[in-house]
Amino acid sequence: MKIAVFATRFPYPLEKGDKLRLYHQIAELSKWHEIHLFALCETIPTQEEISELSQFTSSLKYYHLGKSWKYFNAIIGIFKFWPMQCSIFYSSSIHKSFREDVKKLRPDVVYFQLVRSSLYSGGMSFPKVLDYMDAFGVSMEKRGKIEKFPSSVLYKIESKLMKRYEKKVYKDFVAHTVITQEDARQLSLSKNDCVIVPNGIDLNYFIPNETTSKEYDLCFVGNMSYLPNIEAAEYLATEILPLFLSKNIHVKLLIAGAAPHKRVLKLKSENVVISGWMDDIREAYWKSKIFVAPIFQGTGLQNKILESMACGIPVITTENVNKGIEARPDTEILIANSAEIFFEKIVHLLEYPQNNLAQNALNMVQTRFSWEKCTKILSEVFENIEK
After folding, report:
1. In whole angstroms, what is the distance from residue 87 CA to residue 78 CA?
2. Best label site of 23, 60, 166, 296, fewest CB within 10 Å?
3. In the chain, what's the furthest Cα-to-Cα distance?
4. In the prediction, which pLDDT does 298 show?
5. Residue 12 pLDDT more than 90?
């Protein structure tokens, strides 16, 4: 099949979850189909970044949407009652250009990633598929509950607009995908309304490495400018670590990931290392004994959990996070929903490191979460449309 893919961010480098998902989907889909990528970009991609995607695509075109235009688009979107997440990525001139490019290409299907890309789907007669990925309206609602005034009000308004828009655009697409069953539930979509296409893991890249020495007791990885990750880092440093200090137990925490927010940088101490961007994120996992993710907000499937499991590192996280993974508690993953329980679980793993938890998790990831297996589901969505 000839598949046109539209993204609101150039899907490389892989420092954000949506870029990671689309990059691997394109790589796998290219094994079975002819892929043509169209992507917005805030900064012009480098030749290296273009070459990375070109190896999987028959054609590639990017549309430059400068940062200043996002503010202008946001103002326009207010008068049209569009969610901010959608309006800041929209340009009528780019829409016209994209529509003409697709008309010349004549694809079998056009694949749009994220609801915010759907504004570009108008005026096309080709079958269109939308990847909701996450329940963004619900995510905005959760943000509104934890942000301070006046940000809390803005997030609540954005949540209402996004929830309404998520329902509105449904009818414009012949098929819909979402990352987890929990996100489908939050979007009020049944199994007849959408297909669950999970995130995968590069099992040739993320592998156990027992030769690397363990420099850290605990680690947390993520885009450290993203609020749920910022709060998780703060929770680790200010809620969990003090419980160790109160009992004179010395532990060292690594917080790794791109663009650490100033709130994260403030956490640096004798016991907390803030690495920032790492060229090889596997080093963060390999150098740590336990991966701890006290994430209480957010939606979707946390790639960092799969990566740590694939690297052979035991994971402790919240019930909220495990909804997207559905790992077996106490067998493949440990669950904690308070600082005290996190403390108890960590102490147990530090005292008894040779348990089967990490191996069971590794087996689970290898069985359920290869990118090839997950993307094959998406490929079947496209093929069923053709039929």
Report:
1. 8
2. 296
3. 68
4. 64
5. yes
Cα within 13 Å of Cα(184), Cβ side: 18
Calpha distance 110→126 (Å, rounded):
7
What is d(CA 3, CA 32) in angstroms, rounded to the nearest whole number? Answer: 11
Q: 369 and 306 in contact (C-beta within 8 Å)?
A: yes
Q: Is residue 300 left, alpha or beta, with left meaning phi > 0 and alpha meaning psi from -120 to 50?
A: left
Helices (DSSP H) in 352-370: which residue ranges? 357-368
CA dist., res. 179 & res. 195, Å (int):
9
Give the HSE-up count for residue 316: Cα atoms under 13 Å, Cβ half-sphere.
25
Which strands make up the sheet holding 288-293, listed edge to edge? 272-276, 253-256, 216-221, 288-293, 315-317, 334-335
Which burial class, exposed, middle or buried, applies to 80 when counting CB atoms under 10 A from its CB (0-12, 13-18, 19+)? exposed
Task: Dump pLDDT digits (tens) for 38-67.
Answer: 999 999 999 999 999 999 999 999 999 987
pLDDT at 257: 93
Q: Which helix (H) or strand (E) holds 256?
A: strand 253-256
202: pLDDT strictly greater than 80:
yes
